[in-house]
Structure formats: structure tokens, C-alpha cells
């Protein structure tokens, strides 16, 4: 506070003073200088006491330890750099053709390089050639090559060759594996890579020799040639032909192995050729083009894969004298034994001039023909040559056929029943009718032109599949028991027999189906025991999976038979009645010759058992 104010308080009675904030220092001359020197000495003393001998020893030892650790870390780092291994620094690649023709030789260059600082030992290359490749001297598509050690930074390569086989536009993949052991460790490592080549062409050639033009109904011959132009062999080849509508194949050399359009070529050697000779007839409208297609390939997983294809066409032209025919109003008819075939023959003068002295003939062929049933509307029949003839003598309008004039004639004939099956070769019956129209005196403008017309029609005969269902109480295959006549509340067992027969064509996928009524029990007794009979207790369905059924079964060989046992326990509702044992039996199967499914059925069987001659009719009625 100021001096004047202090004086006022000092001389004022009862005045109060505040407490002193700090103790006053005694002033002495030179005191401040001593204080500074004292602080400097204290700091100096502290510095001197930190580096004691003991502490100096500790710090010295600590420094040595840290130095050793540092040197160890540096050493380990250097050693690790010299001894560690990274497989990604070993490179592996395949070089080869990206596109080639099937059968051409591919040269694969496999390059490998050691980009590490460690020598690679026990180096081995495993090479996987593309599937279906062909190699010289071996058929093994996996090849192992032992290689020399590969030094640090060193590279090398291997060349391998193969002929590549494949489908057009397919990818053929090669794979390489490089196995090795770094010299500094005992572990083995492996690197791998792949390379793909595209097949852009297949050197298999197909060539048709077809006429440019044909008249409808005309018979003609043609060939199909196949040629392997590659430098490798092709294995297990298969050839398939697709015919146009209206074409009927009469003969082929060699014969097809399946249906009428599939041939097994087998192995086709390099440079080899082959030829198929065919003969048939063609029906069509004037100007219509008929295309024939051929494919050469292999079966892969039961699917045909084409290597080479060709399509060629011929044109239907109308001859001056045109003729066509149908049987039972269709051009492609499937006949049955005992059936009547009704032929209609249409003829026409397609020119703008009259044609004299027309003759029409129909030549019938086939063992299945019952010629005694032949019925001619007009015309005459030569039984020796099986030839029907129409001319001006029995059909006056054929004496002069006016321009664009047309007409129709016909006849009918029956198919034999039974078919003439004497040996196992008597199968796949056909009936062929070849109709020709011509003139003894063609007009002068047509002298140098083939004016005749021709039509051939082939009728294939379907096989006859038959199912017979029979019931027995007394049977030599399965022993039955229970009261006869059946009694209410008591169980009686019966034997059911299925018998299959087949006439003229081989059948496949044959099966028999029937249903057991709810009151009938399945006893699970089957003869022969190995037959594939399946019973569904939920639905009552019974199925016999027969499979293939050869022609002449039941004619030259015994019927195909399955027997099984069922039982009934009649209730009051059955009293005085016959009890059904099995419902209608239905057999189906595919005719391998005509390519259609056949069907047959037989009536249900009840306890009347008409096929069991040891019991009387009244023995089937339920009694008390």
C-alpha cells in the first residue's frame, strides 16, 4: 500500500492490518550473489552424483548387450535373405499353337526359370497332353521328364510334340507341373500352368454322288464317300445319314448297323477312304428340293458328336408321263398281319401333246403277300412274275392320253396271317410295289427324252405283341392252399401267369402292367425268381420289366412267362360271387424295325379260372 495510507493507519486508533503475505528477507550485502552460487553448486553436485561407478558399470554392460543383439539381428537378417525361399519366383510357362487343324502336330515349349538365389535340385517336369492326343511310341498322355539342377537365376526349356485330335471349335488343354527341392531345405515344391489350343477344322471329308434331278417315284442309286485327309488315324467313327421326306431306302452296301441310316466306320487310318452304296426311291412335288445330310463323328456319353458334315440336294422334276401311288390313302404305311392293302395309282400326261399306247405295270414283291386275295378293278395279273399290267386292251383311255389328262387305277391285296415265319431269319417283312408308266410310241418331239415315270412304295409289316393272362389253383410252378370254392373269412391262394409272344420283329423296352384289387394280397412268390417284377402296395400296381423280346417268341421259341402268387380272404360282400384276382393286363414294347410302340392287353382274371382245367366253374363262387 502507499506510504501515506500506511501513515494514516499507524496513527489511527483501533486500526487493523492484514496478515503479512511472506516472511521478509533480511537484506545483507552480497546475499543474492551467494544464493546464485549455491544453486549452481547444487546443480553441479547432482551432475556429479548421476554417473556413479556402479551405474557406469551397468551402462557399459548394457551397451555391450545391445550391441551383441544388434549384431545377431543383422546376422539373422543376412542369413534369412540368403536361405529363405519363395516359390513364386520360380516361373513356368507353356508355349504352343493357339489354333490348329485336328490331327496336326503341336510343338509345346515348356520354359522354366529360377529367379531365386538358391539352387533347385531334384527338378522334375510332369506334362499332361490334351485328351485324345496321339504320341509317337507311346499312348501315355502323362509324361515325366527328369531335369538337371537349376542354378540361381538359371533358365531352361523342354520341347514336346503330339498330334492333337478334337472336335471343331473345341478347346484342347495341356498342363505342366514342375516339381523341385531348394538346396537349402528338405521340402519339395510344385508349380503348375496350363495352355489351350482351339481346333478350327477337322480334315475328314464327305462327298455325295447324287443326281441333280429325278422324277417323283423314280428309283435311283447314289454313293457317299468318306476320306481321312489328316496325318493321324481317327478311332471309333460313326456315320449317320438323314434322308428327306419321301425317300425310301431299298438297299445299302454295306448294311447299316442301326435302323436304316447309321453305319459303324470304326478306325479310319490316315489317308484311308470308304464308300457306301445306296439305292432307293423318292417322292415329291415338281420343283421340290430334297436334301440329304451326312455326318461323320463319334459317340460321346451316348450322344453323337459330329466331326464333319455335308448337305446336298436334288430337285424333283416331273417326267412327261407321271405316276404316283398310295396304300390305304397314305404314302408311308405300316401294315399288320391279316390286313387288306388298298393301292391307288394316279397317272398323268404332263405335256401339251397327246401320247399314244400307254402301258402301266405294277410289280408286287414280298413273302408276306397273300396273292390269292388279289382283287383287280381292271388290268391283268401275271402270277409267275407277280406283275399287274394295264394297257389299251383292258383300259381303253391308255390308247391315247390327251395333253394334261390324268386318271386313277387300283387294286387290293391281303397280308398273310400268320406271317410265314419258318426260321429265325424270317423277320422284318416288307411288301414292295413298283409302278412304271411308259409309251411304245412317244411323240417325235419326245423321242430323245426319257418320258417314263416310276413310283415305288414300301410297306413295312409291324410285329404282333400278345399278352395272355391266366389263373390257376393247381399249378406245377407254385403250390397253392386254402378252401376251394373260396370261403368267407378263410384265405385261398392262386397262381397268375403272364405269357408273352412276339411275331416278326425284335422288340425292346417291353413291360407288362396290371393292378391288383384292394382285396387281393401280394404273396411275393415269383417264378422264375430272377424276373424283375415290382409290386407297389400303395397303388396295387404290378409291373414286369421284360426288356428285349426277340422275334418268333412263342412261334419258334417258347413264350416268355412269369408266374406269381396272390391270395384272397373273402368277406360277406363276396358271398355267392366270383372274386376278381387281377385287373386287365397290358403289355407295351417298341418295334425295332418300324420304330413304333406296340400294345396288347388281356381281360381281368377272377376265381372262375377258365384256364385251370382241374376245377369246375362253380368252384370259383364264394361260399360260407
Structure description:
The structure is a single chain. The radius of gyration is 52 Å and the shape is flat. It is built from 3 helices and 39 strands. Strands 19, 21, 23, 24, 25, 27 and 28 form a 7-stranded mixed beta sheet that branches. By secondary structure, the protein is mainly beta. The chain folds into 4 domains: 87-201, Immunoglobulins (Immunoglobulin-like, Sandwich); 204-317, Immunoglobulin-like, CATH 2.60.40.10; 335-461, Sandwich (Immunoglobulin-like), CATH 2.60.40; 465-620, Immunoglobulin-like, CATH 2.60.40.740. β33 and β34 form a beta hairpin.
Question: What's the layout of helices and strands?
Answer:
Blueprint: H1 3-10, H2 31-50, H3 53-83, E1 90-95, E2 99-101, E3 105-114, E4 120-128, E5 142-146, E6 155-163, E7 171-182, E8 189-201, E9 204-209, E10 213-215, E11 219-228, E12 234-242, E13 247-253, E14 262-268, E15 273-282, E16 289-300, E17 303-317, E18 321-327, E19 334-335, E20 340-349, E21 355-365, E22 369-376, E23 380-382, E24 387-390, E25 400-401, E26 406-415, E27 430-441, E28 453-461, E29 465-472, E30 492-502, E31 507-515, E32 520-527, E33 533-535, E34 541-549, E35 560-568, E36 580-582, E37 585-591, E38 597-602, E39 605-606
Parallel strand pairs: 2-8, 10-17, 19-28
Antiparallel strand pairs: 1-3, 3-6, 4-5, 4-7, 7-8, 9-11, 11-15, 12-14, 12-16, 13-15, 16-17, 18-20, 20-26, 21-24, 21-25, 21-27, 22-26, 23-24, 27-28, 29-30, 30-35, 31-34, 31-37, 32-35, 33-34, 36-39, 37-38
